[in-house]
Design a protein that fits this description.
The protein is α+β, with helices and mostly antiparallel strands. The chain contains five helices and 13 strands. A hairpin with a 4-residue loop joins β5 and β6.
């Protein structure tokens, strides 16, 4: 289960930027490129941000690292601002179960009879990062994180591109110019050479949401000395009505 901790830690590591991964543009004149203005782009992104009280999903998932690759079925449940629950099965047999709360996480590796129950500060101590529940939540919803009002805006082909850089962090985003759907997000911690990349695809209308939802999600994490991992999700079932149960035991 170390790779799942690595993926979680690498996703959380960019929280250190404290929403300050931006470049020098500070007003509409500096941010404008052609007909694009940063404040208008940010309003469009915010208006199309996915948000729901509950999420209940099933997905085909593939995990690939330097040492191994494995596929299975992931069951994901989310209660906004309260809890994220996940169970991963292979051939119908549960291999792992995790429960993450804003201040703690629980992980049970059934195959190796390994159980972990720690505060999120455990990740801070082990990986030297600040742990942020809200960051994971937004990524599962398919939203961009760390968008500030001093990013630089430009066009990249048909996409809207937002970029920003500070001495510690760099951010690079691609959005659809009509729907403001997030296509790609790359966040990099420069000093530690750690990187997170999220690619969304297969946007479709889903019952219970006002916005379309990306059924395909590719998450690549580079944890520097901790290693690398790639997680591919293909959501096959989605529901945004609740409540949902989040059972957790280690028996």
């Amino acid at each position: 289960m170390r790779i799942y901790l690595l993926a979680l830690a690498a996703i959380l590591t960019l929280a250190n930027c404290n929403r300050k991964v931006a470049g020098p543009a500070t007003d509409d004149t500096a941010a404008a490129t052609g007909k694009l203005r940063l404040n208008q782009v940010l309003r469009g992104i915010e208006a199309n941000r996915t948000s729901a009280e509950w999420m209940d999903a099933k997905a085909r998932v593939d995990v690939e690292t330097k040492d191994f690759s494995i596929g299975g079925t992931a069951y994901l449940r989310l209660h906004r601002d309260e809890a994220i629950w996940m169970s991963v099965k292979k051939f119908g047999i549960e291999g792992a179960r995790a429960l993450i709360r804003p201040d703690s996480f629980f992980l049970y590796n059934r195959l190796e009879s390994e159980y972990i129950a720690e505060p999120l500060s455990y990740l801070e101590e082990k990986y030297k990062i600040p742990a942020r529940f809200d960051l994971l939540q937004e990524i599962f919803f398919g939203n961009a994180v760390f968008l500030t009002d001093d990013l630089e805006v430009s066009r990249d082909g048909q996409d809207i591109r937002l970029t920003g850089r500070s001495p510690e962090f760099a951010g690079d985003y691609r959005f659809d110019p009509t729907t403001y759907q997030l296509g790609r997000m790359e966040l990099q911690e420069l000093g530690q050479q750690r990187m997170l990349s999220v690619v969304n695809g297969g946007y479709e209308t889903v019952d219970g949401l006002d916005q379309t939802f990306p059924r395909n999600r590719q998450i690549a994490v580079d944890g520097g000395s901790e290693g690398t991992a790639r997680l591919d999700f293909e959501f096959t079932d989605l529901s945004f009505t609740g409540p949902v149960e989040m059972p957790f035991s280690f028996r």
